[in-house]
Design goal:
alpha/beta, 8-stranded parallel barrel, two-stranded antiparallel ribbon, 13 strands
Length: about 260
């Protein structure tokens, strides 16, 4: 079995100090685990916050500086999301995996700009399946990116599907469907338990369901797992109801790796 990729870090880059604190924990407690590849995740801008008053992040320039500091200090490959086609090239200069947010997954200009930047810098393009799409709808997303990138440089992410108001569900069959398009799949373990806009001015969530759904996703064929984490989730400036406590990561990650080994036999 190849090492399993885990995309871990805070939802938003609150500060360089916090990013380095989380990265240090990952370096000491997660990277040494058998069968694990750690990518450090942090967003420089949260462009789709529920409220206009919500914290969005440090912005492109400062955010990339923070991410570069994490890479220089701890050696982690990086992942972050971009929100405009013009951001793709500067992000790809620093970041190893470019992520297209779920609400932008059908935007042709975003996909092509991301693919071109990834091609130029040897990066990977990770696209989140929109909450409004079926797994089969992602075929055309892959076809757009595949006009520029090899399919082994394209990742599709399951992050839940809208199910009534303020609720998401994960169709575990989606991993098989999306993998049929020749790409690897990622389970977004923390965003899929969100309750979008469920608390009025912020998004709610069901943190207690993260582990059980992650285990189900790996059993269903997910190749990698994305989890946002924080030393004090209740004080996180974004997605406080779904960020995972750092201390819970080692057990969850090690269990998921063992499960992946069984699935891949």
């Amino acid at each position: 079995m190849h090492n399993m990729d885990f995309f871990l870090g805070p939802c938003v880059l609150e500060s360089e100090e916090l990013a380095l604190e989380i990265a240090k924990y990952l370096k000491e407690n997660i990277e040494p685990l058998e069968g694990v590849n750690v990518f450090f995740k942090g967003s420089y801008d949260k462009a789709n916050r529920t409220s206009v008053d919500s914290f969005r992040g440090p912005g492109l320039t400062e955010g990339l500086n923070i991410l570069q500091k994490v890479k220089d200090t701890y050696g982690f490959p990086l992942i972050t999301d971009f929100h405009d086609p013009d951001q793709a090239m500067p992000v790809a200069e620093v970041v190893d995996v470019l992520q297209i947010p779920a609400f932008l997954c059908r935007q042709t200009d975003m996909i092509l700009a991301g693919a071109k930047a990834c091609k130029k810098f040897g990066r990977k393009l990770k696209i989140k399946k929109g909450q409004f799409l079926s797994p089969s709808d992602t075929k055309q997303i892959v076809e757009k990116a595949a006009t520029i990138l090899d399919r082994d440089s394209i990742l599709l992410t399951e992050r839940g599907t809208s199910f009534g108001y303020n609720n998401l569900i994960v169709d575990m069959a989606s991993f098989q469907v999306m993998k049929s398009f020749g790409v690897k799949t990622v389970h977004d373990a923390t965003h899929c338990v969100q309750q979008p806009g469920g608390l009025g001015t912020i998004t709610g969530g069901k943190r207690d369901q993260i582990f059980v759904l992650a285990k189900a996703a790996v059993a269903a064929g997910a190749d990698a797992v994305f989890m946002e984490c924080h030393p004090d989730p209740d004080k996180a400036k974004s997605d406080s109801t779904t960020c995972l406590q750092l201390e819970k990561l080692p057990e969850i990650v090690s269990t998921l790796v063992k499960l992946k080994m069984i699935v891949d036999k």
